[in-house]
Write a structure and sequence with these properties.
The structure holds 2 protein chains of 2 kinds.
Chain A (H helix, E strand, L loop, with lengths): L20 H16 L1 H15 L1 H8 L4 H13 L3 E6 L3 E8 L1 H9 L9 H11 L4 E9 L2 E8 L2
Antiparallel strand pairs in A: 1-2, 2-4, 3-4
Helix pairs in contact in A: 1-2, 2-6
Chain B lengths: L6 H13 L3 H26 L1 H14 L3 E6 L3 E8 L1 H7 L11 H14 L2 E5 L8 E6 L2 H8 L15
Antiparallel strand pairs in B: 1-2, 2-4, 3-4
Helix pairs in contact in B: 2-3, 2-5
The chains are: A alpha+beta, B alpha+beta.
């Protein structure tokens, strides 16, 4: 059987990674929460999910959750995270045992924002909003989480 | 996790939101980012001057995959950005780019140069082309002279005439 190669992802990347950007995300999160409130932070992550990741949203809307798993694999590999992805009949589960972003911030910043993982939770929710799927994020420890794509009931 | 590869697109969303609140708020945000960046560059500038700046931007060139040339002599540091990955990604984006996206760069670098006694001349050239020229001088007279040839001179919070 000949399998067609997958087309490139919308934001596929190569080259080096600049992990210090995660420190700027942490600073930004603290700034926004302190100055404008957590609701504004969540609104911005919702825009990231809906607008920046419009292509991922569209794949979910088109009944294709695999593009999200492909996105996870591509970027968690690039950042050298400790994770695995289990693709089942009813759900796709991403288990992150060591999040590179969280641990890099813990190394370079005075503290990791208590809202740092909202970038994952809220962006995931927005990507899935209005599609047949939900993406839930459970924080299981410092720099560890479980993200699940599951068809809505 | 928003991948570090996608930071600039997140940054773009933050800029767009804060811009709706006014320039003062945007200035405060850039000052906060500037303070964050001090962790990476301030000691290099204070201990090694232009060579320390060269060291910092050499790492950026590598890690951020920039097409740029860096030059240092006894009077100044010059960075010629030929292809800026930050603006390139902000524009290659399913979300709308902020019109003044380029302004953030001088927005965080300028305050650090003011603080360390250097003079920044940041020529954005155009806000829709991913290229720019940054020059940093110790002598304010040289900075003033360099400003004359800039096409689109950037401003930053607290900028004072050199």
């Amino acid at each position: 059987m000949i399998t067609e190669p997958l087309p490139p992802m919308r934001y596929q990347e190569d080259g080096n990674v600049h992990l210090d950007f995660h420190g700027a995300v942490n600073t930004t999160i603290d700034f926004i929460v302190a100055r404008y409130g957590v609701g504004v932070l969540h609104e911005i992550f919702a825009r990231v999910g809906k607008d920046v990741y419009r292509d991922l949203h569209q794949h979910l809307a088109d009944n294709d959750p695999n593009e999200m798993a492909r996105h996870w694999k591509h970027f968690f590999d690039r950042e050298g995270a400790d994770y695995d992805i289990a693709v089942g009949d009813d759900e796709i589960v991403l288990t992150v045992r060591r999040c590179t972003a969280y641990h890099h911030v813990a190394k370079i910043a005075p503290s990791v924002s208590p809202h740092f993982c909202d970038q994952t939770t809220k962006t995931n929710e927005a990507i899935a909003e209005g599609t047949p799927f939900a993406i839930t994020t459970e924080i299981t420890g410092p720099g560890a989480c479980r993200q699940v794509i599951r068809r809505r009931a | 996790m928003i991948p570090s590869d996608h930071f600039t697109r997140f940054y773009n969303e933050v800029f767009k939101y804060i811009e709706t609140l006014g320039q003062h708020e945007l200035d405060l945000y850039w000052l906060e980012i500037s303070k964050n960046q001090e962790r990476h560059i301030l000691d290099l500038i204070q201990t090694k001057g232009f060579e320390g700046m060269h060291e910092y931007w050499s790492v950026i060139k590598d890690e951020e995959n920039c097409e740029l040339d860096l030059m240092v002599d006894e009077n100044h540091l010059e960075l010629q950005m030929h292809v800026c990955p930050s603006l390139t990604k902000a524009m290659d984006n399913d979300a709308e780019p902020m019109k003044r996206y380029c302004d953030h760069c001088a927005g965080w670098i300028g305050p650090i140069m003011d603080k360390t006694g250097y003079h920044l001349v940041y020529d954005m050239i155009s806000r829709t082309e991913p290229r720019c020229v940054m020059k940093i001088f110790k002598d304010p007279a040289l900075a003033r002279e360099a400003e004359k040839s800039a096409q689109l001179l950037a401003n930053w919070p607290g900028k004072q005439a050199v």
